[in-house]
Amino acid sequence: MPLFRDERLPTFKLTISQVVIAAILLVLTFGLWRLQIVGAQNYHALAQANRIRKIPIPAPRGRIYDRDGRLIVTNYQAVSCYLARDQKKNLKPDFPLIARGLNMTVKQIKDAIRKYQGTPDYEPIPLKGNLTPDEQQFIAAHSEELPELETVKVWRRLYPKNGFMAAVIGYVGQVSQSMLSNPRYAYYQPGDVVGESGIEESYDPILRGQDGYKEILVNSRGQQVGVLGTKPAKPGKNLRLTIDLDIQRAAENAMGNRDGAVIALNPHTGGILALVSGPTFDPNEFVNGITPKEWDALVDNPQHPLMDKAIQATSPPGSTFKIIESVAGMQTGIAEHLRVDCKGGGYFYGRWFACDARHGWITLKRAITVSCDTYFYTLANKLGIKRLAKWARKFGIGEKTGVDLPGEAAGLMPTPAWQMKTYHEKWYPSETVSMGIGQGAILATPIQMARAIGGIASGGVMKRPHVVFPSELSPQYLKYMHEEYPGSGNKTVHFSRKAWEIITNAMAGVTQKPNGTAYTSRLKGIDFAGKTGTAQVVSHDYGADALSQNIATRPNAWFVGIAPRRNPDIVVAVFWQHGGWGQEVAHIAAQVIDAYVTKQRRLRHNLLASAPGANAGKVLKKKPNRIDVGAVWSNPEDPKFLGGKPVDPKAAKDSSLAAMYAGHFWLSLPKAGKK
Fold first, then answer.
1. Is the model's pLDDT at 611 over the cut of 70?
2. pTM score of the predicted model
3. Which of 420, 453, 543, 614 is most buried, with most CB under 10 Å away?
4. How far, rounded to the nearest angstrom, does the alpha carbon of residue 399 sit from its chain's CA centroid?
């Protein structure tokens, strides 16, 4: 037996040990390199965040003005409380004290933190807005023990009182988590204010501006010890609307508390002069955050105050649809010589279709004036659903107008193909008969009817409705708006001059002839025309009556009015849900048009000195206290309006000037010695 044993490791084991040690050293070296070199910038940023706090400086939203530069929406400054979560200490023990000082509950504080749990801890989160002086003093007095509380001056929206213009303006609120997942809101941060309806939503990228921030240096306890720098906020851009506050006020007063809508357009440009949706809501309630109870009350309200009924409410248009049908009848040659014997109704396909009166033998012009259902039953039956639907679509029924407001409804123009696809049923000819008076499955919005009838009265020229002047938007943003809010836009529908004259004269008879359906709403000295409509919501068999005590069964009331009858300067559509007869809402439109004409006359009177016509400004010998302003004219939407050139009304055949003002546009002058 050998005295000494060989204790050396085998060569292969030594090699394995060396490889393992080398691998371990390599891993350690790589980790050290990653920490010291690659991750240096990242950890430096985190270290900076531990001692530098970024306090937001919210940007004020742009102001909103009416077409004449009168302020509608502005801002006011308030103080909000932000909670910094980059403290080393546990914040939960401070919650009861914070809750007492800010008049909150501990649950509300936890909910706020939970809402923004996805944001970095070094970003302060909004805790409470609109601090009272007592709450601000509480934060200042406890700055040593509650360094996590920061006060920030913010801008809050100030809207008109009592919900004035709420449907147009909309409201703002804090951006939600669902919005943040939408690419459209990619540049927003939690807590940012965003437009949620109306102008505030559709023009939010222009109105919102760019927030700034202030970088402060804090110590280990989170207390501020210095200011490193400030990036000021960039205010949002202001907007000038096409809305005329005088016309808007007249429309709001005329509509009152009714459930429905009023919309007034300038058919020459598509500019919206007034838009009312009722009942309204107060957007000021949303500025500081609405409670769940208040939100539920608005959402559950059967009259839907948050709905913009001017562009979202859909209903059969009733007899207002007869104007579109009349164009179709004239262009196909059916209506031009059609005479119908109205005996209080007529039989079609074995069924009696009633009319409101026995009109006897009647032609198109009188049928429009007295709104004879029997005539239009017959005309629709002769046209057939395909031709009727074709012309309805030409005038925008069943498609969006492209108005620059969110949530526009397209309505519906039914066809046999639609019915088969939707209900798997064939189209019956009797359904076309009902369609002749704007009943059945057809659905339209007030803005569609205003644009369609205003377009017909304008000789077929239809403009895209808008509430912001397109000329004041950049080409890029205008393109974005057209893509974001698609619709039929500007279009021209060609039809004969004869049809134009017959239909517009018949519409004038609606308000100006004793047998017209809206004769009681006539306006002295104004060429006011229009068409009434009554749309059943349930069958007569189920109690559909305009005077029914059960409001839910009353028909919807429609009226679309224009002034003057051809090439109108204004078109007003009124929709009153369960309002009964269309003649009732004609008075609402009349008040709006009267306010518009009165204002235009006043403006032109003030322009006499700068823009006299051939005879304008001359005091007649026989009427020393009256002045002829019939030749003073200019487009109100023309930026050169104040220096516009006068037009001779005698040479402006069929123009709005000749039709509206010739023969009656006189203004009384103050007597000598009086101001």
1. no
2. 0.80
3. 453
4. 17
**Paired sense of beta strands 212-218 and 64-65, if any:** unpaired
Of 556, 426, 565, 596, nearest in space to 503 by CA = 565
pLDDT for 613:
43
pLDDT in tens, 168-183: 999 998 877 677 667 7
For residue 407, the one-letter residue type is G
Task: Quote the pLDDT of residue 55.
Answer: 74
Q: List alpha helices for 170-236, DSSP H.
A: 177-180, 198-202, 204-207
Report the percent of the chain where pLDDT is more than 70.
80
Q: How many CB atoms lie within 10 A of CB 10?
A: 8
Quote the tokens at residue 262: 């009023």
How far apart CA 574 and CA 580 sit, in angstroms, is 13
* C-alpha distances in Å from residue 444, one per residue of 310, 313, 315, 647: 10, 8, 6, 37
Q: Can you count the helices (H) and strands (E) in the chain?
A: 22, 23
Three-state SS annotation for 249-276: HHHHHHHCCCCEEEEEECCCCCEEEEEE
Q: What is the distance between the alpha carbons of residues 292 and 313, in angstroms, rounded to a whole number?
A: 25
Q: How many CB atoms lie within 10 A of CB 350?
A: 6
**Predicted pLDDT at 177:** 66
Which range has the top average pLDDT, 179-188, 211-220, 458-467, 636-645?
458-467
Give the distance from CA 194 to its chain's centroid: 16
Residue 438's pLDDT is what? 96
Q: Are the C-beta atoms of residues 190 and 173 closer than 8 Å to each other? A: no
Question: Using CA atoms, how far apart are residues 532 and 573, in angstroms rounded to an integer?
Answer: 10
